[in-house]
Design goal:
Elements (H helix, E strand, L loop, with lengths): L1 E5 L5 H11 L4 E7 L16 E2 L10 E4 L3 H14 L3 E3 L6 H10 L4 E4 L5 H16 L4 E8 L9 H14 L5 E6 L6 E7 L4 E7 L4 H14 L5 E3 L1 H5 L6
Length: 241
């Protein structure tokens, strides 16, 4: 049984993760966290108490975090203090903040990924393979998210660009970041060579895909002592070359 803590309990992602976790026979949702400024911070969710004190994660087997960078780093300190593994799906970190996460992974195990979706992580692997093989002369990206998303371009788009550049040896020429309506997340990358064009796309139908990946990552961390992991590690995709 995995004793799970979930941050951002009244947010859209928090709600999606809670729903899946409560339906999982291998998980017990023991602690929910919410920011003290949230209007519902004292309201329980599905009979589980919600706390503003992150010390309440003590004794949990994992904390899943999909919030904002500052709140995530605050909860990271609590996780370090109490030896609680973390799944971090928050995006929009500065390089200094990423360095703090990397340092914390020397003490606790952390899965840190710009996108927890299983499908998107297969997309990442396809980008790596394509960049190595196609001989691209131009690479461009388009991503669309809902109007509430804070970071632009998205963390997923940045990861796609980094993978494409590393594997191909050329710079991505354009990232077109669109914010409209309630779009969960659409990502497309276009590889053009002298002979052809290859386009790879991913469309998010439901926010539960991120929740499913996060729960898979939390289970992966059980019995890990320390280290920084990605969803590629969780899914075993690093073995594919």
């Amino acid at each position: 049984m995995l004793n799970l803590a979930i941050s951002g309990a009244h947010g859209r992602m928090g709600q999606a993760i809670i729903k899946l976790a409560l339906a999982d026979a291998d998980i017990k949702v023991t602690t929910l966290l919410e920011h003290s400024a949230h209007p519902k911070c004292t309201e329980s969710v599905s009979g589980v108490d919600v706390y503003t004190d992150n010390a309440k994660i003590k004794g949990c087997d994992a904390l899943i975090e999909f919030t904002l960078p500052d709140g995530t780093l605050d909860n990271l300190k609590a996780a370090q203090s109490h030896g609680v593994p973390m799944v971090i799906g928050t995006t929009g970190f500065t390089q200094d903040q990423i360095t703090q996460i990397q340092a914390a992974a020397e003490d606790i195990p952390i899965v840190f990924a710009s996108n927890m979706s299983i499908g998107v992580n297969i997309l990442f692997k396809l980008i790596e393979i394509t960049g190595q093989a196609i001989g691209a002369t131009d690479i461009s990206l388009t991503e669309t998210h809902h109007i509430h998303k804070k970071d632009k371009p998205s963390g997923t788009a940045k990861t796609m660009a980094e993978l494409a550049e590393k594997s191909s040896g050329i710079k991505v020429s354009e990232i077109d970041a669109i914010r409209e309506g309630e779009v969960i997340g659409d990502h497309t990358i276009r590889f053009e060579s002298n002979e052809d064009v290859l386009t790879i796309s991913h469309h998010a139908k439901d926010r539960s895909m991120f929740a499913k990946g996060a729960i898979t990552a939390a289970k992966f961390l059980k019995d890990k002592k320390s280290g920084l992991f990605t969803m590629q590690d969780v899914l075993g995709l690093n073995a594919i070359r």
